[in-house]
Here is the input.
Amino acid sequence: MPNPYLTRLREQYEGLRSGIEGLQTRAATENRDLSADELASVTAQGEQARALADQITSLTEIETRHAAVASLGAQVEADTRPANAPAEQNRSGERLTGNAATRDRDPGHYRREGGRSFFGDLFAARSLQDADAQRRLVEHNRALDMATEGPGVIPPVWMAGEFAELARQQRRVAAAVRNIPLSSAAPISMPRQSASAAVAEQTNENDATSFTDAWDSAVDTVSPKATSGGQKVSRQMLDSSNPAVDALIWSDLIGEYNEAVEAKVVAAMVTAAGSAVVTYATEAAVTTALDPAEATYIGDAILDTAVAVRNARKLPADVLVASVSRYGQLLKIKDSTGRPIVPPDSGGPMNVIGTGTVAVDGRVNGLGILASDGVTQYPESILVARAADTILFESPVLRFRYDEPDGPEVIRLGVWAYTACYVKHSGKSVKRIAITAAA
Here is the structure.
């Protein structure tokens, strides 16, 4: 059975390799050099890939050595069994033929009277690569009768593929906006034009052109912040687990990190949107607005908000961001005859304003829907935005392990990355609908 931890590392390495090759292939196809951002991304991913390759090489060598030792042990047993030795019998009295024994005699390594520690050998074999401890464990496990001796001594088999992680949505909005890699935590200067020159029609032929000193620019400074978290784990849990608990804990920490980044991007967009275009005071007002016949109809509010973005930004919005529950309300809107206005597809019905299902986010009034857990409740926002105007700066996520900051019994596992979010054309590229309170 392949080592699940090694398999996971190889998958991570393959993902980094594919990402690096993708950037290089794109630059070659476009007959250009890598941009500064692409080069920084390739360099960062290359460092991660180098560290993974070193770890994979070391662990593969250990796995190969274990397999070789086990193979040699089996060969020695087969070669040293006497040719005329009587056939063994199993516990049911059935005669066994051939040189392979289904069960060896108990070697007595872990008896109470003066034996060795089973868990001590687990630690030594796993963490210290102690060959003698590995041999004792192999001999002990071969001698076990699973019906009477195995439970509580042999670690249980983990169905790694069925491991039930905490329910996390991961990234929806953060993946839809522009993503630019960071190579450091240094502040980023974002230049912008703050005023423009005056251009006017000539009143009379031969009138002199008017020149003004009105053009001006400014700079917004974006400061990346560390997004990090960690978990304390007992040394026994790490050293005696299968599959490796550290991989499961790191996976959970990455899930929490993604949730934090998603919430950060949504919060930046809400702040940039400023005052709401349309406000519903309570949930009761929203419920009323689900009726297309009402003056406060939410479909019209979405359309008004999208038009407000186009008027202010001079370019159309392309995404609508809402909570999952709020998106569910949009799917339930029906016309006066009971027909859904946001059906699974638009083939045939003429009353639709969009398409969508519970399983796949759809479109409303031409806007791609992003149902995100990053939207907070009360005051809650429904955002209409131009996705390309929101930029997420993000460094590669570092996984780290501090062995003994709290003593030899406790190990700390953590993740660390730098992130920053910047919304261009603040107040113009994002507009919002607000729900003030529940009641």
Q: What stands out?
A: Residues 87-102, 149-153 have pLDDT under 50 and may be disordered. The longest strand covers residues 410-423. The chain has two domains: 4-79+102-152, 168-193+218-439.
